[in-house]
Fold each of these.
Amino acid sequence: MFSITLNLMKKNVRMLIPAGIAVLIGTAFIAATFLFGNAMNDSLIRQQTAIYAGADAMILPDLPEHLTDAQANEAYSRTVADYHLDRMRAIDGVKGVRAITAANIRLSNGTRHATSYAINTGEVKLLPVTVAHGDRPVDSREIALPEGIAEQLGLRVGDTVRVASRWNASGSQDFVEDVEARVTGLTDDPNGAYAYDGGATILSDDLMASVNGVSDFNQVNATSVYLDLDTRADTAAIDRLLPRYSRLVDRSEADRLAVESLSANGTSVVTTFLMSFGVLALLVAALVIANTFQVLVAQRRRVLALLRTIGADRRQLHASVLCEAGILGLIASLLGVTLGIGLMALLCATDVMKTAGVSMRLVMTWPVVVVPVAFGLVMTVIASLGPARAATVVTPLEALRPIELTETARHGRMRAILSILMFAIGIALCAFGAWQMYLSAIGRESLSADHYPAVLLAAMGGCALTFIAFVVSAVYWMPALMRGAGALAAKIGPSAVIAHSNIQKNPRRVAATGAALLIGVTLVSTIATGAASAKTTMADALSTRYSVDMIATGTGMTEEQASQVRHVQGVERVLDAPTALRHLTDDQGHDLSVLLVGIPDLDSLSKVMHADLTGITLTDRDVLMPRRALSGADIDFDRTHTADFIAAESTATTNTDTTAAAGTSGPNLTVLQADYRRVSSTYDAVAFVTVNHFTDGDLTEQGRILLMAANPDANHNGVGGIIDGVREALNAVPDANVTGPIAERNMWDTTINAMMALLVGLIAVAVLIALIGVANTLSLSVIERTRESATLRAIGMTRGQLRRSLAVEALLLAVVSGLAGVIIGTLFGWLGSYMVFSLYGTVAMPFEWKINGTVLAVAALAALLASILPARRAANTPPVEALAEA
């Protein structure tokens, strides 16, 4: 029987090709999805862990859950000496050790000034930035500057520069006396480890000690230690040297913690994203394969029945069909995996993703091969079970008669009951998932990292069951919709009347043909809706998290310098405002350092801030504050509604006459709160008052701030070019400090854009699957009706009318199935987006008019193309010959 099966496959290769292509595309998509997930996780890990450089292990804080002030003071006041670096270097297998220290510094070269974030030197492998030109600092007050800052200051390797430490304690700022350092190199930050600061300066150990105001490097505060280890390193000996509240973690554990920190609940962003759309994609690919193979086997029922007449028993025929499905599924799946790997390898090898700022590598794992092959094989076999059983119960006598795709009343009742049950269970699961996310969003319940995947999968399972119910019950609702659409189309002419009649004649045929297109359009619409929702939702969430693109602070900034900043390429708007540092305590007893900023009105603020300020009116009696502090903790003024701002203990400025007296009360203002954050990383919060408080003496100006809205695309050097340009414009201000949340914001936007690039690929695949499904099912449907077409020709229908009737029928199938797919897909897209993105903010529920309209147009065109060749065959065949063949 195996040889007969192979011969049948060889004889009917053309009929097998459409099913094989559907399997190939589905498995290629699955393999590519796994590979893309691997590549994106790898890219995110490299971005988030760039600060670790080439370290194999690191010593990180290990704090108790309920931290006391004494414990926090001990954990965060350690010096380099507390880690016993010399003893660590002496341990077997330890090749390098670097304590992590840092300082905010001011650099001066004559009348030019700049600020920078500085790190200490160390072994090349343990440095997170590279020395692009020259050498890394070693000792004797040596320094390596970022290339942009060196250019801004007019420095080259071998020159000298004045270095002063800029440090902040309780929000105040002071400067250690300048020291002279020799520039030994220029640094580059290829992995964006210090993108927020525009790169990092490397200081020799003695220079780091000097700018930290101590005489020896061992006295410098150290937050952690990075180690270069080999396989024989004695980690137990290292553990014995660790101070309290510290632990040694290997690189893989540090990578995992870094990537998990991207999500509020510990779930990887990429895993969550791909889980949502990947589950749906697996489902849709399975349905396409199943539908295509079912139509294929159904068309061969006569051949299978004829085998019964020559002695084959039912078991042999059943095994033959399953064997054929297994061979087809295995070959097509292997080809699909090869195609998926090839496409991803090409994507990674080219600069396609680099243009979006993402460096991708091909990362192979066992699921890339095993899951798609197993999926394709199993699905083709499962898809053949029903048709194979139906073919084996046909009697030999029935093999001599034409076989219509009909079903018994019993099967009809079972189908209706099954679809109703699946629909009810699916809707219940979807409602459960959405309700759980709603409770989490309003704060009634908190979804843990373990609980969230279960809720997500419940909702996805609900979508799967609901969609399967739609497909299974298509034989009931789709012909009804077709009749309604056909009744309108029948008014066009005789061809449309025939098309309307044909659609009503065989509900099973209509459902089988329309379901293929329904599946493809649903996938496209779901993904398009999810993509649009993701883009809008995450953009809004990022706007809340990073409220201002860039800021510059300092004393003595003039209007002329602010004007120069406005002319920097990429800086779109600038708000120049006075500032004063104050302290306050909220209703929960949280002590906060607050920078008060004087603004003319809210309209000028809204032009440079990404936040919703509608409905807020700021008067001279009010202060606008964020709802959350920089740390993420809530700022609570629900009970008092007013805030008493106390002057800082130390507020040294260049103009000591205007320094506020420590501990004196400031204005008592009514608190207005809005959802904005991350204006400055220096203070717990940045609040806004009217500028009148500075002009009438309520507040004394202690500095100025420039709030900037920027567009990285407008500068040919991107974010780095904008930051360097602003620094250059302010280089005459000795204490000017330019920071750019735009850099971190841009990194998140880049990640989202890269994910959107995946969605573009998914849409292309979905359209291709829909084209093949429509072409296959519609072509087989028209071939099956050869006798009908011949009869119509015999009673006088012209060839043109016959072609038009088939075209109208194809259009009705495409439009009705497409519209149903768009509606279902949009609803699924909204639910999927809510399940994923409600973790990050208010979820947008857009309707993608452009993409959905394009998909419907493509579906209509695909249906017309699919009908051309069968219609031509039916129209060109002489009626007598066609009746004889049928």
Amino acid sequence: MKIQKAAVIGAGVMGAAIAAQLANAGIPVMLLDIVLPDNPDRNFLAKSGVQRALKARPAAFMDPARAALIQVGNLEDNLKDLKNADWILEAIIEKLDAKRSLWERVEKVAKKTAIISSNSSGIPMHLQIEGRSEDFQRRFVGAHFFNPPRYLHLLEVIPTPKTDPKVTETFSEFAQTTLGKGVVVANDVPGFVANRIGVYGIVRAMDHMQRAGLTPAQVDQLTGPALGRASSATFRTADLSGLDIIYHVASDLGNATPDDEDFTLTPAFRTLVEEKKMLGDKTGSGFYKKTKGADGKTKILNLNLDTFEYEDQGRVKVAAVDAVKGQPLATRVKALYAAEGQEGEFLRGVMNDGFWYAAKMAGNVSNRLQDIDNALKWGFGWEQGPFETMDTLGVQTVIANLEAEGRTLPPLLAAMKESGRDAFYAGDETVTPEGQPTKYEAPYFILTDLKKDATRVIKKRAGASVIDLGDGVLLAEWHAKMNALGEDQLRTVQDAHKLVQDMGYHGLVIGNQGENFSAGANLPLILSQAQADEWDELDDMIKQFQQVTTSLRFSPHPTVAAPFGLTLGGGAEFTLHADHVVASAELYMGLVEVGVGLIPGGGGTKEMLLRFTDMQQPGQQLGATLLPAVQRAFELIGTAKVSTSALEARKLGFLRDTDTVAMNKNHILQDAKRQVLALAPGYVQPTPRQDIPVMGDAAIGAIKSALYGMHEGGYITDYDLVVSGELARVLGGGTGNNRAAKVSEQHLLDLEREAFLTLLGKKGTQQRIEHMLKTGKPLRN
């Protein structure tokens, strides 16, 4: 049951996006749909699905070239071709009869080893396969993706009572490793896990909002990032999903579940859908509406649920949220749960509903508490699931509050009360849905699990640590805000190198499991030192930075970088110098220093020039043949190009063909560790290059000539010209050299450092840094 080829039936929004994700993973996939009777192109719907995916924003494809892996067809001419697919997934209309009819046709042509799946979000899986053979039922497992499939980590895998456990295991492994999904094994019940609990939360939030006299905008402040949840919070999420979708799902769940679960929609919500037809983003208006003001800028108007008119409420401020700004998540959650007034009344009502319902659903929607927590985190962008949040507050505190409201405790909470246990997770232990202790099974390699064993943390600083990954491999982990690079991060990498050598470890991984690998250098520190004229200190700091980044290549042991998310500036420079890179597929990597009036000073400029000049054909002479390589490096750095995926990073030159791309971000540290162990036997320490070809004044002149033309045309600013001139000087290998020559890596590093300091001393650069720190946007001065 190895999945090497796939087929998706149904080329609508979800079907086409799932096909794109398969293509992203390198899996050839057929995309089939019906034949439109009046259209001469029998594959029109499937072709349209691919085109829609290519135009989607955010992008469905990690690299548009991957669309070539999708073979389009139709269910009349190409049904027989399903015999080649190892996995067949349907994403057609949500009607039981249509799905049953499709499965009858598919069974006649699918090979006997193919795994069969439905992407249905609501129709029970066991109902779809009634009447099919035992062999077909054995190979059938639900696969419910969340939209958009590329970006939402959750995949609910739903076996039926007839599904072979080996099929569930094989498919789950494929989904995690190849497709990069976070798998939650759900029971075949209405709504499965995430929608059952998530939609319940939305419905209850609407009811509590109106009871507390709050507005949707106020509720979104209370139930968004302040509570550790997505910025779209409750009602913005509803607008994005479609209020009609929420309406139908809630209605279906209300019909399919006991009365005490209460999926009753408020009269105001029903009016929005049934009478006003205000369905959210798809109709341009829902709880919010975008409009343009007199100044031409987009404004967000808020719905008044009493009048059903839109109002400009300006920036909505909520006292309970303002009071916890800047606090750690645990502090925020405790404070918000204990808040006073109507805001606190609302939050306790909503949170207690969520806690009660999650506990009631334990053993119903899924057999593990962690699957419920992960479904809400991966499907809705929560930082903590409901059981983790109860742990933060103290489970006995939550139980006491629920009882004070007169609620009957679900069996899980009743068992927790009887045992006196105050947390669902403790060390490597959790509890079953019946409240009995059991071993916690981490879904992936989780760094915090290692940290629970204090012996694994070898050395710790405020912003970084050295951790033993086991099997003779160390990890230099950064854990500062945005993982900005400062003294803690640099010294920790140096500590780790020394420990590898002194303690006989095999090698080193650079990585972490924060929100981003690294957003770059510590700009506030750099600016403050420049404004204080601490130039000797700055020169020493940049030298140290260069020494540490290049140490990843020139150490006596292998180093592997594991970048993901934002990998900018200095974060990219660390990555560029590693012996090997295991990158998350979602990699946003770039040398972006020109945006703040600088150039890469940690070896990034040198490294891109070296890489592109090495791509010359052997035997080519130096001179004009180098110019395309210089121009390529200049364009990449000078435009602050950032990859939109690891596949694009490879095309741009940030990653080598030999580097590894992992679809699942949570696998990269494990994979990086394996790469260190693979490199360690017979590893030979590299030596710095002395033979990098440069063009000198010829390259500088060519670039400056193009720059002046762009400046005259108004494409770049006066200060862009200054910054670009310094970049050209480094890429040319320095001025005063009128012929092609070869220089050392250290020569280019020295030029980088000189250019970095020169620019840092200029008013234009300091203005750009100040503007970036203040607004988060580049200044065009």
Amino acid sequence: MTEKQKGRPQLLSDCKICVARCNNLEEDAVMQLDILISEHGGEAVIHEEPAPFPPVEQFTHIISLTADFPAYQSACDAMIPVVKPQWLQASIAKGKLANPRQFSPDPRLFFSDVVVTCGDIPDGDKDAIIGGVIAMGGLYSPRLTFQVTHLVDLSMESDKAKLVVSKNLGAKIVLPHWFDDCLKLGRRIDERPYTLPNPEILNAGPDIPVRTFGNAAIVGASTPEPTALPTPSRSPNHHRSLSVLEGKHIMLSSDLGIGKHLLDSIEDLIKQGNGTVTKDLGKADMFICRYREGFEYRTASRWNKDVGNLSWLFYLITHNKWTSPLRRLLHYPVHRDGVPGFQGFRISLSNYVGEARAYLENLIQAAGAECTKTLKTDNTHLITAHDKSEKCAAAKEWGLQVVNHLWLEESYAKWKMLPVSDPRYTRFPPRTNLGEVVGQTELDKAVLERNFFPADSSVDQSRVMQQKDQNIAANTEVIKTISPQGQTKSVTKSSPAPSKTTATTTPHTSRSSCKTSNTADAKTPIISRFLADEKENVTPSTTSSRKSKEAAAARIHDIAPDIALYEKEKKRVGGVVYGGRRKTDPDLIVPANNKKRRSAEPEEEDDAEEEKETKRQKKVKPPVAMHLMITGFQRWVGNLKQEDTDKRHLRNLGIAITQDAKKCTHLAAPSILRTPKFVSALAYAPVVVHIDYVTECLAKDELLDPSDFALVDKITEKKVGFNLAATLERAKTNKNKLLRDYRICCVETIRGGFDAFKSIAEANGGECTLFRGRVSMNDHRRRDPDSESDEEEDHLMKNDVFLVSGEEPEHVKVWPRFRQMVLEAGKTPRIVNVNWLLDIAMSQEIGWKDEYEYKTDVAF
């Protein structure tokens, strides 16, 4: 018996879903989606280009393969979920609507196609990978199923890895390093160098060149100023040539600087695609210009027209497929002076090839810097796809800034020079050429609006009325006052324009509006009025001007309550409520008629008194009884909302959650762990409790005695060879000075990250520096006269220099240099693995085992 027969509502009974038949979604797939939606009680609307996209507000969901379709931004503004087709299958399989975030086509969620499960890897790595994948749009499966796309493992000997091979499941078996590098870069790189059974990052020698893969993201978008006419696509999948321009009104700016012959050719291509070339900005759907300046550019941007450059128009014509001009950096008009702060930079490129190199060269020029073919000492930056080249070695030796292309792209997108010290910009994953992720950065519309077409431009206000050939609807900016009788007075700004009409302002499109709407920005009380279409281009006479004024005054009179409500909301704590007020709100002004309206000022005073009373009655938080550091808490993994709720709950009980080991008085963990938090916190001798302490406090809503939840883990104590209680006693004695005066270096790409080992060393009074070919021998620390050490420890402290390293080829190659420099300084070099530092920190005593040290270079 079906759900309908049983009387229960069907799964999609409340859903109206638009299927966007763009971006190469096959016709058979569209028909299948239509059938599935109808079978489960939903209403399907199929949209096919070049028809205008219907208003997004009427839909509950939009299904699309990508986010690159005309109505995507409008859907986001209206909070309409845009999902991939897999969302429908997942919802039907679960019997309930799936989380749309996990099926979003948003390119920023670069793990959206990933379903990951973990093999035999440490719990800390597992938690980090699961949390990162979920945060970036992916899914985690505790079991190995056919839906799993990636298995994270360290070898092919685990049970899950053997099952993947025996059952031929198709999941890729990758090292955890892949997820780590993707998350640190903020981009999804190719997983082939990390794929078992023969991962290239572990087996390839240091002299083997890094392979370069193709990059489709910048095809047709490598220059803002194309020199050749586009060749329209003749794909058999398209029933008509240039359907992407059908029904579009396109305005070409005078700042393009192209000759009449080329201009005529472009207009002919537009007309062949049933598009229309117009000189009327009010009618235009697309505005093509070269620079981010001028009255027309600002007006088109504020009216939410599609503003792009010739490169973008040529891309549409060539591929006959819609793409947003904000999708690629060089599809949008450039600025004459470039990004502030980039002037004077001399930037060279290394290891980028083909169109990726041309794209970066043009982007450097668009940013306002100089791109040099060769690298010299007067260069300021080197942008490289990987750090294995002669240019990279020379740049480091000369002290130049060596970064990847993300620094350039994101600085251009955010329109400010970002600091090169950000680890994302100095990250070079081994055996990966970052040229494969060039061109994935998009422009931010909010940044563009803030810098190039802000809403409050008084210069453009007067020019609107002076444009005789522009079909632009005028708006009146009103500074309102409401009289006690309910009459509204409008005060307009003075304008040098000779027209007798009231001064106007360029309309600004709000976030919740569609592309074609001219709604005023929610932050500015601008009242829109539109003249009759057939008379807009006629010079207004005295009579028409008077009629316009009367019509505007009538409309202003009608919306006076809305203005009053807006002014009231401005005074509310936290600003104007996003999304407006509901009709059911008790303080919503609903006048009985237009003649009897009262001032909102008394209610404003009442609201102010209510807010003051609320603040007085606000519950006072109890004093902090403990500063708690938590590690390994599975309840919070991938659930930020639950984490925030629990932290607020704990604070109300007197427990402050801290991430700083120096501040923590208590440490909660499920067992003895080797996580940076746990190991660093031990140096401060906190009270160590089981993670159940946190759970019980939350469940019972009270501050419990931590002594009843002391952490007992005999199995791990036996395995690692130390007693937790004894460690904490020694930590109290050491007073964070266990590693004082020890010289510790660390290779840059150590597993676990340099920052983790640096924090552990510093928590114990030591200093850990990054080894980049130099070792500091300055004795700037002083011995503590109260500290005790035997002769062997004192000898180690005074004469030994330690390098924390792994056995990877990139680590091994720096060993001879380290040994040479230490020996030249008259010291003893000791190259040790990470267990040396971890065992010292976890036992809180100096110890030594021969297995800690690499005696000879490892041959590969």
Amino acid sequence: MQRAVSGPALPRRARRRTGWTRPLKTSHIALAFALCLSASPALADEATNLSGSILVVGQKQRPIEIEPRGLAVSLADEQFAAINAFNTEDLMKYAPDFFVRKRYAGDSNGVPGFRGTHSAQSARTLVMVDGFVVSNFLGNSFSYSPKWGVVGPGEVEQFDIVYGPYSSRYVGNSMGGIVNITTREPQETEAFVNVQSFAQPYRQFGTDDTYWGGSVEGGVGLKQKDGPWSLRLTGRHFRNEGQPMMFYGLVQGGAAGPAVTGAVIDPAQQQAASAGTGIAGAPGTTASPIFAAQSPALITQKQGKARLGYDDGAITGELLLAYWNNIDDQHAPDCYLRDASGNPVCGDGQVTLGGINYKAAGANWSRTERDEYLLGGRIAADLGGGWSARAALSTYQIARQKAYTSNGYDSGRTGGAGKLAESGPTGWVTGDLTAERKGGIGDIALGATASFYRVDTLNTTLANWTSDAGKAFSSETYGKTRILSLWTEGALHLAPSARITAGLRFDDWRAYDGGLGRLGTTAPNIGLPVFNSYAGRHETALNPTLSGQVDLGGTLIQLSLAMATRFPTVGELFQGSLNGDGTFNADSFDPALRAERSKDANLLIGREFGRIKLTGSLFYQRVENTIFQFFGFNQNGVSISNYKNIDLTRQWGLEGIAEARDWPVQGMAIEGNIAWIDSKTLRNPSDPASQGVQFPRIPYWRVNANLRYDFTTRLQGSLGLRYASRPNTDLDGTQRGDTYGFASELFALDARMSWMATRQLRLSAGVDNITNDRAWVYHPYPQRTFLVEAGWRL
């Protein structure tokens, strides 16, 4: 259906509501195995009841907050104290076979990844704060990462991580895994303040600078002495300048321009291009001279939260309100080119370099502003007779999001023309109702969940890119999805040392009110907004889960099986994007995408040997209709992206986890893990060359480890390791390199020292990436970064 709109161009919302990898470096693998083989937290005198609990790696002081089927990790203060945590998501950086795609401190595109999850498959991870959903299922890419910013690292009490969709309680977006962040609940009157300062000396191509950042976080907690009420108020102000994320190359051709010097040739990019493994993919091609770096991202974030609690022993409740403001300023592209007078040249036209004519473009200026809110409430009560019930309702709203971008460097510098993409109000609402009975030889749980997602993005053109005054309609995309679900789980205790848990989940999914608007190109609608509406879709899914475990003389064995359905998000179905030249890309989404459907299995074996605990994991996942975002160039050389289904992908792998405490010496704790992952595209008729090739951005090897040592009761030191072998960059496995534009090997050593100067005052200093390893996830990861921190608690 099409309709022409005459008159002013108003937005719709105004009218209606290869399997190839680089070998492990010898020094890297030696260090990795040294840390892993001497590793883990289970004291000999701990009363650990293996037969009564799922395998949980990490802290054991508090129960895990999410149902731990399959591999489960629980992290708390003991682990947090050894981590340089610039942001909340850093607190998980050494978890087994896990990573967060974090490019710099304050990065709002930090997508978590489990095992064989691509670093842009954000819709395959369910993330919650105190049980309230903060996963951004409005889309599925690096732009839709969880809303980590609503929580400051100083208020986190516990991180619980579960790998895979092995509990029927959770929606199919748990196909990769589940993360729940538990914030601190006051036990008495308390207060805290944390102050950080950090610096990253950065050297890459023609960029040579030091980027600074810091934060102030604080809060107070009040607990009623003889009553059920508690209140916690927290806030954080964060500011950081992240290194440039993009580097711009000259495009050969065109007329002559001013003679310039200063361009940089990347030897690694040149080597990849000559070998036919570069982005162009043709043997004998030449890497483009780099003429500029994108402006460093100056990030300013403000976060505030109020948590009201109630607990009278029979009824517990919580009300949570969080606010997050994020501003990303990029107003200083680093121009490498110089004209004959020594003045910087940054593009928007032709230049002549070494007698060859080039076009320089892309060094835009930009500013993004966001205001976001989380409001949630939950209540739980003991109903008697072994029954309990709980209910939760929350909403996350992006009240304002405006992304201003200039049309080139000169426009950015002079306040010229540009573009504006704005969203909001947009967001989601989720609800959860559960009833459980425990006792006897069997436990049973019943529940219902609901979620609603809505997005509406308006793109306009601007005469002055810094102001939305006089904006003119360009395009608009919008749509909604919802899922209504029923589930049940039952556990049968066959013996004190054995049990079986089975579950079933029914999902009813609907996509509706989707469409796009753009300027008409044919009479009589030339230059007028024309809107296309898409037919609604409705699907259902029924997915079982089954898990069994047994304790055989201190060796715990658990086998978990599951099926899961991950329905397409609003963004994949309806949310169009802009091409690299600013025009609307009508092929960037697909309203007919099929749901992802997985079959999963996980075998765990764990045993404690005195002060050491060893855990082995074998996992398998087979996914039909994998939704993948393809990037490329059209016939005019303009960058484009689109979502398509891949018929069949498969991953399997092995994980070894070792934990030790007070071993090999008193006061030392080591947690180390190593994983081998084989993730393949098995069937993809639309691109046969990808079949049998290792899935993009999935390394064959991943190692995370952390060693802590108490030099005294007040002084602790730690050493951390993060390693991933070099993966493929593209689906066909033809793009490989260790430089900008590729996914590379990662090797980072981190260190930290903390001193309790008094009972209340802690002073810390640390460094991440000690060896200054240069790693890439297309964009550059941070280079060596220094941190100093002071923390005070009442």
